[in-house]
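Example record used in the benchmark description.
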Amino acid sequence: MARDSSHNDVIRTKILLLGMRRSGKTSIRQVLFNDLSPRETLYLETTTHLTKHNFDTVIPLEIWDCPGDTTLDTLDAPLTQFATMIFVIDIQDSYQQPIQKLVDFVITAYQENPSMHLEVFVHKADVLTEEYKFENFKHIQQRVLSELTYINYEYEQIPINFQLTSIYDHTLHDAFSRSLHKLIDSLPFLEDLLNVFCSNSQATKAFLFDTNSRLYVATDASPVDPPTHNLCSDYLQTLNAFGPLYKSVSTSPSRMYPPPPTASQQPSAGPSAPNSPRPQAPSRPATRAHSPAQASPYQYQSPQISDSLLPPPTTTSPAPLSPPTSPPLASVSSYSSTPAAPDPAPSAPPPPEPTPRFYPCAAASLSPTAAGAGTTLTYHLVAPGLALLALVPAGVFAARRGLVEYNVVFFREGVQEICAVERETRRVPVGA
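Model output (structure tokens):
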């Protein structure tokens, strides 16, 4: 796998994005990794210089967006540094020049880096009807293979993957996800976790999505159905749009009362505490509905709650009559004639408390019926930037939701361990 340490602290996998001018390379990068609306890509300027974009998912990526006039001579790096080459062809453009450029890059990549993955995105497929779309797609594929065979019969065996893509539907996310799968060394382990989860939870399909780009980095062994993938991708997009509007009560700071004072901030009770009068809490003004004139002296009066959000006053309770079992050090030294022992060496500070983690979840019923049939689409965040989306029968989810949540916990632990190993293996050694 081609890797590079151009980033400061991590080794990134490089993806080379090539194509002719106005073929849609920058639009693909902006829609996938910058969350740009497809309609806003009409206002993008033509790429005139090399652009490198870093993106972190299960593996760290570095996408090279090259201008349309990039050739083998003007490319600033050898092809041996790249793990994947994605060549974008406009389906409605003339084919002669882009196919010739693609053939030159494929032959050079095959000679210099035979392990490089070669992908061809026949882009902007939404502008044609279904009939012309597939006809042009087959024509491009045959032309490329025939050009390679004409140059050398050996080049016919070069594995090239052709895919139809468009930024206006889910074909682009599906095509790039399949290209990403070939770069993840830990993909078999992620797939095994998904297979075990589907078997134990009776889920019909499960995806591990990257929440930022909506690329699925892994799925279970069952075939990927395009409508199912589209449904999960749209649901994830909806949660991404409305999720920032909600916060966790358990992880948000308290907005009602300040934190209680610590033991060092509380007033200490001295030796004369038992004889000192107990301070009384200041009386609160009565409200209009409960005035002292209307209250009966023989009725129990419930405490009234003030409208303000001030903290309740802190009162100091008298010290117990019996002496404390462990008196403070200051009181011992004040009555002792022997000199006090020197303070011990300061100990190491306690380790910081782990940051509380919040893993949101959601569920949506698909085509529910009165008999309880149908499917439930579940969402569980398993790691920063990674979410599990699964399709579970509605009856199973209603009756065994606790079991599903229990399986999610173990799936989350497995994914986090795999991500930790990936980060450790890609970390740049100190001094390198």
